[in-house]
Hints:
Helix content: 25-40%
Structural class: alpha+beta
Order of helices and strands: HEEHH
Radius of gyration: 15 Å
Strand order of the largest sheet: 1-2
Number of strands: 2
Strand content: 5-15%
Distance between the termini: 11 Å
Number of helices: 3
Shape: elongated
Amino acid sequence: MESLIRRRMQSLKKLTDNGKKTISIIQLQGYVQNVSFKFEESANVVELARLKNLNLPTDYIA
């Protein structure tokens, strides 16, 4: 089963065309801010091993 974090990241990547477009976020005080998200390539085996030493939630590692 695909993790919630992975689904959210894929949605943001698609909505922003991986950083080429912005989306509007409404802040708590009603202020609208335009943001984008750029995602890098997946981590390799060595990088993942380093992440596991940080005690991150399993969704982050996935």
